[in-house]
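User: As part of a screening pipeline, I want to sanity-check one entry by hand. Below is the sequence and the SMILES for nicotinamide-adenine-dinucleotide. Please return the complex as structure tokens so I can compare it with the automated output.
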Amino acid sequence: MKISVIGTGYVGLVTGTCFAEKGNDVLCADIDVKRIEKLNNGIAPFYEPGLEELIKKNFQKKRLTFTANIEEAVQTSDVLMIAVGTPSDEDGSTDLRYVMSVAESIGRFMTADKVVVVKSTVPVGTCEAVRAEVMRVLAERGVSYDVQIVSNPEFLREGAALEDCLYPERVIAGVQSEEARQLIISLYRPFVDDESRILVMDVYSSEMTKYAANAMLATRISFMNELSRVCELSGANIDLVKKGMGMDRRIGPHFLNAGVGYGGSCFPKDVKALIKTASNLGSPMSILQAVEDVNLQQHDHFFKKVQNYFKGELEGKTIAIWGLAFKPGTDDLREAPALRLIEKFLYYGARIRAADPIALEGARKLLSFESRVQLLDSFYEALQGADVLVIATEWPEFKGADFAQVKSMLKSPVIFDGRNIFDPVDMARQGFDYISIGKDPAFQRVVQTGSHVEISNQWLN
Ligand SMILES: NC(=O)c1ccc[n+]([C@@H]2O[C@H](COP(=O)([O-])OP(=O)(O)OC[C@H]3O[C@@H](n4cnc5c(N)ncnc54)[C@H](O)[C@@H]3O)[C@@H](O)[C@H]2O)c1
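Assistant: Here is the complex for your manual check:
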């Protein structure tokens, strides 16, 4: 099939590349000329494991091409996929200006019937608004073509985007005609082993499914984060509680990690958007307001652990930060908890020495004007002269850290782990003050005296 994907961000570029990989003829378009230049030179504009290689492969086979000419993108293909950003507006609602601008371009440039597939995450009713905008422009031009609209939200995870796109757990599509249903099935059949994984429904339900899924995942995280604070006060250990909960098949083990709070380009804005949709419809989702509040409190809660360690005096202290990206496997810094923490540390007068395996380039753009922030290529270098270490992203690289070196470089052996990646017993044995999430602060002292906590911790390993 001939497909044009409009918007070459994480979703558009990955989707376009994967459709090309499956043998389609894909033209990816973006208004960002520099981005298109990079892509035409075989350079991925962001980090996603395996993506650059797959782009090059399909580019060489001429199944994947790039353009900054939206007119060309609209006219070349019968299937047009919209994958532009849908950030939060100031009031939390979804800013649809990019989506609607693409709709306007489609109406302006189309010279034949089109199927418009909306992959961007958009509130209920947006696909209809997109179709109405295309029809409005067509009417203005005095021409008439058929426009089929399909809602096809994307569920890929940054860091595992190729796997998610090439082997989706499910494909959700909202259609308004049998013809569109058939098209979606033929588009996605090569991606699934079983056609029942392609769930076709009405457009409204499809649009809502995306928000519902992200809101549920965010809810699980906030639930665990709030529970972790109760664990800290009650003497329970959130990691053990998590394991006990996750073994219940009705609950399952995923998305139960307590931590420093969620971030990224999706959860914060999608939770806000659903809150807004619900309240606009007169049925407020108080549970989601709580999810968002708990998330913000959790960033603060973790920050206060560090602040309290220094008895409120962060002025002149140097904090080493390991991990800047909002999660491992990506260089995406949007709403990254690390950045929120850095902002707070700076506000209270601290200095920062931070390292991340791949997000440094993006971080330099955001933080280069801050004289008290040093961004370093080596994790160990970041520790040089630092008072304490804060872990903000659970990069697998950190797990194999050389703790003797960590200890020798820090002014004092103190680690604040916002992602619970180390075993507190081990850390205590290695002589660290290890402060993580959801454990009684007295935990390590108890561990060192060989009490029941050590025994219970063995179950964890
Ligand atoms: N990033 C994710 O992990 C993820 C996962 C699932 C769904 N989504 C959703 O997919 C959508 C895209 O997200 P993203 O992270 O890929 O966005 P992004 O910000 O990485 O990329 C958006 C791209 O669209 C381009 N663009 C903007 N206006 C345009 C126009 N008029 N014509 C052509 N190109 C235009 C921008 O230049 C940019 O390159 C959002 O709705 C998001 O919520 C994202």
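Points to compare against the pipeline: The longest strand covers residues 2-6. The chain has two domains: 2-201, 214-460.
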